[in-house]
C-alpha cells in the first residue's frame, strides 16, 4: 500500500489528503475501538472515543509529526481522549487513580499487544483448579459478592476468600508483573456510582 510508511502517511495527512485519512481510518478504526473498549468497558463510549480521536486528527492534521509512529500516536490519542472524558464524568478517588495508573502502565508498555495479553490471562484462568476457577469467575465475571457465592455454593465465606486469594496468587505467579496490571484492569476495577 502506498500509505504504509508512517513518514509518507503523516506528510499526506499534513497536506489534507483525504485518501490518506481514509486509509488511516480503514487500517486502525476497529483495533482502536477494541482498545478503547478495554478502557471504557462500554462499546458505545469506545466508538465515541475513537470517532472523537479521528475528528481531532483531521482538525489537527498539520501538527502530526512525521518523525513519530502513527500507530503509537493513535493509541496515545485514544488513551488521552478516554482520560479526558473520564475526568469530566467522575471524581477521581483512590481506586480510580490506581485504575488510571494501571491503564497508563499498559498504554506505555504493552498496548499494541493488549488482545494477546488478555488471551493469555484467560488461558491461565482456564488452568486454575476447578473449584478455584469457578469461584473466581463467579466473583470477577458474574459480579457475585463473597457472601452470595458462599450461599450459592453452600460453602463458608472463608472458603470463598481462600479460593480467591489462591486464584490471584496462582495468576500473579504465572503471569508476572505486567500481567498483574491486566488482571487489575480486567477484574479488580468496579467504578463507584457518582
Structure description:
With 194 residues, the protein is mainly α. The protein has two domains: 89 residues, Rna Polymerase Sigma Factor, Chain: A (Orthogonal Bundle); 83 residues, Winged helix-like DNA-binding domain superfamily/Winged helix DNA-binding domain (Arc Repressor Mutant, subunit A). Helix content is 77%, strand content 0%. It contains nine helices and no strands. The longest helix is centred in the C-terminal third of the chain and has 32 residues. It starts with 5 loop residues before the first helix and ends in a 6-residue tail after the last helix.
Describe this structure in a few short sentences.
This protein is mainly α. It has 2 domains: 1-89, Rna Polymerase Sigma Factor, Chain: A (Orthogonal Bundle), CATH 1.10.1740.10; 112-194, Arc Repressor Mutant, subunit A (Orthogonal Bundle), CATH 1.10.10. It has helices at residues 6-14, 18-40, 43-59, 70-89, 94-109, 114-126, 130-140, 146-153, 157-188.
Rounded to an integer in angstroms, the radius of gyration calculated over CA atoms is 20 Å
Name the CATH architecture of the largest domain: Orthogonal Bundle
Element pattern in H and E: HHHHHHHHH
Average pLDDT, rounded to a whole number, is 76
Number of helices: 9
Strand count, sense and closure of the main sheet?
A: none
> Which of globular, elongated, flat, extended, rod-shaped describes the shape?
elongated
Number of domains: 2
* CATH class assignment of the largest domain: Mainly Alpha
Distance between the termini: 47 Å
Contiguous low-pLDDT stretches (5 residues minimum) are: 188-194
